[in-house]
Design brief:
mainly alpha, 4 helices, about 120 residues, about 75% helix, de novo design (two linked rop proteins)
Length: about 120
């Protein structure tokens, strides 16, 4: 039974992704701390944050859908920063593939929730 946003699988998956990205970014060069590291961590954290905020406002369908749409946008933004991290050789191919796959899965789940949210 879903009582809070924390019960949503999509919230749990996106929160775990943000934590994984945070841990992974710890090995990036120090000169990236205020640029790539910051952007990647922030974009990944806005995914679960938008889910939580949208859930709190789900009584207003348009507002809820807007927050889910914002979360989808943040998910796509995170993919771009992951591309940069890979191309700068800060991520191994395996790390990149795993994180990108998680982003793709989260994006699919967000899209599904946005289209079927009344069933939850």
């Amino acid at each position: 039974m879903i009582k809070t946003y924390k019960d949503l699988k999509i919230y749990q998956a996106s929160y775990n992704l943000a934590m994984e990205i945070f841990k992974t970014c710890g090995k990036f060069p120090k000169e990236e701390i205020y640029s790539l590291t910051n952007q990647l961590v922030r974009s990944s954290r806005t995914i679960p944050a938008n889910i939580a905020e949208g859930w709190a406002k789900r009584r207003y369908e348009n507002v809820f859908i807007k927050h889910l749409t914002d979360a989808i946008g943040s998910c796509e933004e995170t993919k771009v920063w992951l591309d940069f991290a890979k191309d700068c050789k800060y991520l191994t191919k395996e790390e990149y593939s795993k994180l990108l796959s998680n982003c793709d899965e989260i994006g699919t789940m967000l899209f599904s929730l946005a289209n079927n949210w009344k069933k939850f």
